[in-house]
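quick one before i forget lol
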Amino acid sequence: MRETSQMKTITIELNKIKPNPFKKFIKNGKLDEEIISKLMEGYKQTTFHMNLKARENKKKEVELVYGHHRLEAAIRVFGKTHEIKIDVYSLKEFSDEKMLLDMIRENLTQRGEYYRDMADCVMLAKRCGDSALPKVFLLIHLIS
C-alpha cells in the first residue's frame, strides 16, 4: 500500500529558507560567485526559476534540499523579503540521508568538481550513517 506524500506548498520569504544542513561541509558552505553572477543575469532578464525543494526540520524551519546558488542569486536580485512558493516535505520523507543524497545528486549534474573528492563524499555520508556510503559511491559512479 502506497503512502501519500506529506508535501505541502507554502509561500515564504527567501531569507527564511535555511541551507541544507550538509551544505556547510562542502567548501565550508561557500558559494561560487561566478555561478551566482550568471544566475543573477538570467533572473534580471527573465524571472527566478524556482526549481527548489525543501523539508521542514524539527524546529519547523524550512531547509533547502538543493539550489543554494539559485536562492542566493534570487535574494540579490529580488531582495530578502521576496516571497516564493516552495514545495516542503516532512522529515519522514526527507531524512538527513535523503537530504545529503539529493544535494549530491543535484550538484554532481550541475557542478561536479565540488563533489568529486571522495574524502568529502565519504565524510558527508558518514554523518548520515554507514547506510549512506554505498549510495553515495553509486551516485558518483553513475554520474561521473
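fyi The mean pLDDT is 82.
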